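Note to self: keep these together.
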Amino acid sequence: MKGRSLHGILVLVCALALAAFVPKAIWPGATLYRDVLTEGVLLKLGGVIKLAFLAVATAYAALSARRLEPGTPARLPWMLLALGIGAFLAGQSILGAYQLLLHVPSPFPSAADVFFVGAYPLLFGALIAFIRAYREAGYPVGTPGEHALTAAVGAALLAAPTWALLRPILAAPGAPLERALNAAYPLLDVVVLLPILVLLRITSRFRGGQVARVFAGLLAGILFLCAGDVLFAYFSLLGRKELDPLVDATFVLSYFFLAHGALGQYRLLTD
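Structure:
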């Protein structure tokens, strides 16, 4: 399938998924959700779409790395990104086994969390490697000192809201492992956000080009991932299960943008 055709399908599927999930959080008692898009149907729909988006993202990130010659600075970050997204795919596959095969909501915590947590060091490494790759390729990325300053300012600005977010999660009742994971995911997201801030500064200089669109997709994917983790932690803390469709919609957007970015890079290398 050609890249443009696949991209169009991804956009259509994402739009339909959002149209299914978001209204559920607003009108949970609507006839549509009682008779057609029941909780079981939405559970399976979300599971299939997330797996599909992650599979596309993993495949095209790996294909992009393979298209680059050994020794090319951009090859390593694309390999790390493929591994990181692949770890999310493995974790989502475990959740999908509960949702699609056993027809029950996936438990939390579960074995999937081993892969989800393990994905973050790979994503962080990929983002750092992208910064180095741009510098080695001769792009106007700024100095290492400027990058360190950007990350330090970001860390200072995020410190207070991060603590405000983590404190009620850590103080909430529940199993220690559940509370630890609910706190760990937002904290890991903040760590990943720091190189994202540097990459946003770098890619802003490529505004309007294909490279900028690729990284806009990848960065949007990671930002929506952060939002999904925060919403999941807080809705779990508040016991607001009826808001789960918003969490699903946020993760669908995250995985869509990761697929969009990886597919865009592959098209950039092959067109």
